[in-house]
Amino acid sequence: MNGLDINDVVTRQTCESGSGCCYEQVTLSFLERGLGVRKPPTCYKKMSVVIAPTQAAPTTTAAPAAPAPVCKDRDTLAPTSREDCGQFDYHECVRVKGCCYMPEILIPGAPWCFKKT
Fold it and tell me: Residue ranges of the P-type domain (predicted)?
């Protein structure tokens, strides 16, 4: 081309008279011109964006979920009432089996690794 940019010739009135066109005059900064950034077109076509209506979530009256089982301490669950998980190692008990681990040295027969309730 010979250096003529059609966007420099188009006026706001000419641009906006076209169907669905927008006009925006952009001035590049000194740095942008120095870096060779191309000036965006001043006259451009609007993009049509269709937003579909969403459907409302179905309403249900389900019963609330039961609370997740937790590890109960000796104040809530007597050590002798614990259900044994059959492990003695902390890692095997907690990480592998997902059980509770509370050593009871003073209460003979109380499991150290027991199921959550």
Answer: 69-117
- At 70, which amino acid appears? V
User: Is 74 found in the same domain as 41?
Assistant: no
Q: Distance (Å, rounded) from C-alpha 115 to C-alpha 81? A: 11
Query: How far is Cα 93 from Cα 84, in angstroms, rounded to an integer?
Result: 10
- How many domains does one find in the chain? 2
Query: CB of 110 within 8 A of CB of 73?
Result: no
Give me the count of residues in the chain. 117
Residues 74, 112 within the same domain: yes
Residue 85 above 60 pLDDT? Answer: yes
Greater confidence (5 vs 115) lies with 115
- CA–CA distance, 108 with 31 (Å, rounded to integer): 80
Beta strands in the chain (DSSP E): 21-23, 43-45, 100-101, 113-114
Residue numbers of the domain that contains 19: 12-45
